[in-house]
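A reminder from the course coordinator: this example appears on the midterm review sheet, so study it carefully.

Given structure:
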């Protein structure tokens, strides 16, 4: 199969490597010209996935049209906030029958769109019929090292979901299908915001109890937003929900969790972002998910506090105090 992968960050590179190793004719598009040259010469993505040699068959390009030319499957893996611009450049280049998969996790600022909604707006409504959200507990580095990992391909079109499942699956990378594309997308977007909260908690010196509580109540927020957007509750109990939430809230490889830890330790957001080349989607999604919750009148108190800490100068300890002193009530999902 011919596959184009758009975005050579750590995740796009790791996923391109999976399908290339599975025997598919794969071309990886990189935004940075020096990365195209570097990967072509050394087979290593020195900027975003250092130290890992990529499959011999993987091709590299700096041209968007070359990456998707003749592709039966196009995988989008740029940061969510630049997705619309990248897609606009690809609009006339992607084959109208190609499956469109996205492994990006976030909600667009301003429009409050998921990636599938961005695709429909830019490429036309029919794009939704061939859209697949690929998400789960998968740190790029561990996938690239071949450590057993599981993920979900969610789509309203089961033929498209099965195409992605077949292309990516191998003995160390197991892909499940789901018919809940929006649930799979929302799980990935919201867990990044909750991971910042979990990091803040650890950075403040709180314990395992606090972190477990944040994960559990974060899952309740994810479910509530999902219900308001037509997702299925069961999706959030699965890999793209609880699975990814647990991974990101507890794993030291998480960029979002790391941002939270540093905030909890007293660093400013500006200082943290200044020394970070990689994307921590939760920083921007804290604003967009919080706005989405307000628009849909969904109660998401942890998300709201993360937003206030990041953008409202609220001290993290005060935010915790406010969360703890909310009205007492029965436990509800
Ligand atoms: N790294 C990981 O373990 C995982 C990441 N993801 C998601 O994958 C998406 C991509 O993240 P990573 O691959 O981790 O990125 P990264 O943090 O490793 O690298 C940043 C990426 O952003 C690209 N970029 C920056 N400015 C750009 C622009 N103006 N136009 C186009 N591209 C631009 C860079 O070229 C690079 O590909 C995100 O939504 C992330 O949440 C999902 C699962 C795992
Ligand atoms: O989405 C991820 C793992 O599934 C990666 O999380 P971070 O972006 O927080 O590193």
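Designed residues:
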């Amino acid at each position: 199969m011919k596959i184009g992968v758009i975005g050579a960050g750590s995740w796009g590179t790791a996923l391109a490597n999976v399908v290339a190793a599975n025997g598919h004719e794969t071309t990886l598009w990189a935004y940075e010209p020096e990365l195209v040259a570097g990967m072509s010469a050394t087979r290593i993505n020195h900027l975003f996935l250092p130290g890992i040699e990529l499959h011999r068959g993987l091709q590299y390009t700096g041209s968007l049209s070359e990456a998707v030319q003749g592709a039966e499957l196009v995988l989008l893996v740029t940061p969510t906030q630049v997705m619309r611009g990248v897609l606009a450049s690809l609009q006339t280049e992607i084959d109208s029958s190609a499956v469109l998969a996205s492994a990006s996790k976030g909600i667009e600022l301003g429009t409050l769109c998921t990636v599938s909604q961005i695709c429909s707006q830019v490429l036309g409504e029919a794009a939704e019929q061939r859209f697949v959200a690929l998400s789960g507990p998968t740190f790029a580095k561990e996938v690239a090292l071949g450590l057993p990992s599981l993920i979900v391909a969610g789509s309203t079109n089961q033929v498209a979901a099965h195409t992605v499942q077949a292309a990516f699956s191998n003995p160390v990378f197991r892909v499940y299908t789901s018919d809940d594309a929006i649930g799979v997308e929302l799980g990935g977007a919201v867990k990044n915001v909750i991971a910042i909260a979990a990091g803040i908690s650890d950075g403040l010196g709180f314990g395992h109890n606090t972190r477990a509580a944040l994960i559990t109540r974060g899952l309740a927020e994810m479910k509530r937003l999902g219900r308001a957007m037509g997702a299925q509750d069961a999706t959030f109990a699965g890999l793209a929900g609880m699975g990814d939430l647990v991974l990101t809230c507890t794993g030291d490889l998480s960029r979002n969790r790391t941002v939270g830890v540093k905030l909890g330790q007293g660093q400013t957001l500006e200082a943290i972002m200044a020394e970070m080349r990689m994307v921590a989607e939760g920083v921007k999604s804290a604003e967009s998910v919080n706005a989405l919750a307000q628009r849909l009148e969904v109660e998401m108190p942890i998300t709201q506090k993360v937003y206030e800490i990041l953008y409202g100068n609220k001290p993290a300890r005060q935010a915790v105090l406010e969360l703890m002193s909310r009205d007492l009530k029965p436990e509800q999902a």
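The first strand starts at residue 2 and ends at 6. Residues 181-203 form the longest helix (23 residues).
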